Amino acid sequence: MRYPFPVGDADFIQGDEAIARAAILAGCRFYAGYPITPASEIFEAMSLYMPLVDGVSIQMEDEIASIAAVIGASWAGAKAMTATSGPGFSLMMENLGYAIMTETPLVLVNVQRSGPSTGQPTLAAQGDVMQAIWGTHGDHSLIVLTPATVQEAFDMTIRAFNLAEKYRTPVILLTDAEVGHMRERVYAPHPDELELVCRKLPANEEEAKYPFGDVHGDLVPPMPIFGKGHRTYVTGLTHDERGRPKTVDAEIHERLVKRIVGKIENNKKDIIDYETYGLEDADIAIVSFGIVARSAMRAVKELRKEGINAGLLKLNVLWPFDFELIEKIAENVDRIYVAEMNLGQLYHMVKEGANGKAKVELISRIGGEVHTPGEIVERIKRDLR
Amino acid sequence: MRLLNTTGWVVKMQIRIAGIGGQGVILAGIILGEAAAIEGLNVVQTQDYGSQSRGGHSIADLIISKEPIYDLMVTKADVLVALAQLGYDSTKDSLRKDGILIIDTDLVKPDREYVGAPFTRLAEEKTGLALTVNMVALGYLVAKTNVVKKESVEMAIKRRAPKGTEEINLKAFRIGYEEGLK
User: Fold this and answer.
1) Which of the two ends of chain B, N or C, has the fewest CB atoms closer than 10 A to its terminal CB?
2) How large is the ipTM?
């Protein structure tokens, strides 16, 4: 297989470009989208590359249709992706719920910009954290990954596909305009170096009868592929193990939704990923993610130079969330700061995790500019005075 | 003035190229970044520009380091290249006191110590195309700072310059480089 970009080598590329290349290396062969700043470069790259790898990249009439096409492609057996930003992400919420309810593997990239509404199209924000996790209605769970560098955008895109296939679920790659548009040196592994996961297919006709049952006792049913001869019914209505609508039976509804939530919650250990720096002896912890984690890292180093024992928790996965980890950190530090580019979203989850064992403070910044390390340092020093 | 080729690589270098839309400022930043990446250095390149395609400010930021880079935008520039007065006015405060200011001497009237040459005029007279001003300035920058090797930039130009314009861009880069050695 020849790839239309360097593999097994480093290149100097934008975050958006890295996401498109990584998707193709992960096996993505269907992309549907609608252009929007600052995610358009992903679409641009997909339109260029997909025909060269026998894949499909298609412009739909809007974002509602984009995610709908991706759901269809996934049921037809393709690894599929769409990418958007704030306004388009809002439009995708209903079909994101449909993908969760029908257990459709897909990757949805949100290159965050400032909102609400059309807001500041060219500037970065982290205002969609709560929306990514809870934006679609009803009880549910899903997976949200968040990169801080162009290399991480690349690596996490591959991981997003693997998790989507493994757990038969939509995975959101929550990045932002800054990571999307910045250029960094990125190593793209040769596909032989990659561990790629593909969804479980029914082993026989019997298994194919239960595309929504716990056939293997791991809460993740094998997924029949349209056109392979199985009779499969797919609906967003509450359905039984065979996929038939059962909309008034409490027991069936509870069993279905609890399994969909359970397959994520029970596998937290496998899914959750984070990095720490200097937390072992820290009196002050900074919790951060995505682009802001870079400034937080620099801030921790500067605080330590000045004799203040600070540490960093950089979250690579925002959902499922490790409330227990936050509680453990809270037991060992005096204060936890949450640095994020919004008016406080992750902050609330950290506060819940800390469970009153440490004071939790928000270092907030909105308007499009990332916190400088100096701002974080100054705020913490001011509080210590 | 602190000459970087005598102190060599310390930790990291912050470079800012500022001009107006249409001068190819961002392409110059991308090519310099690519050259650093070719040498195996860590590099972050970000940009800031007005929404108009021509005439607004245009800034390319580069941070180049052997260490991992956490910073995003240039906060204290070691080198500022100003190709237009508007670019200079909006970025001059970000240049360190002992940093190097490189200007197009026809187009920028600075209020501090500087080096430079009439890049736009050189581009027009020697390549016949004022548009190559970005490569002339880049050549000058590389000669003055040694931030990357001349050969790495030439390779990056071959990769990144729009198809069919590689030769004229290389020519412009070499003109700037020679000027910078003077």
Assistant:
1) C
2) 0.87
Shortest Cα–Cα distance, B86 to chain A (Å) = 21
pLDDT computed for residue B1 by the predictor: 27
- Are B17 and B49 in contact by the 8 Å Cβ rule? The answer is no
Find out whether B89 and B110 touch, Cβ atoms under 8 Å: no
What is d(CA B167, CA B172) in angstroms, rounded to the nearest whole number? 9
In chain B, what residues touch A124 (CB-CB under 8 Å)? none
Global pTM value:
0.94
pLDDT (average), residues A190-199: 95
Q: Give the count of Cβ contacts less than 8 A between chain A and B.
A: 51
Going by the DSSP 8-state scheme, the letter that residue A241 receives in this structure is T
First to last CA, chain A: 61
Confirm if B51 and B115 have CB atoms less than 8 A apart.
no
Query: What domains, with CATH codes, occur in chain A?
Result: 9-193 (3.40.50.970), 275-384 (3.40.50.920)
**Domains of chain B, CATH where assigned:** 12-181 (3.40.920.10)
Which SS3 state, helix, strand or coil, does residue B155 take?
A: helix
> Nearest residue of B to residue A373 by CA position?
B71
Q: How does pLDDT run across A147-178, given as a tens digit for each residue?
A: 999 999 999 999 999 999 999 999 999 999 99
Contact A122 B42 (CB under 8 A): no
Q: How far is B87 from chain A (nearest CA, A)?
A: 19
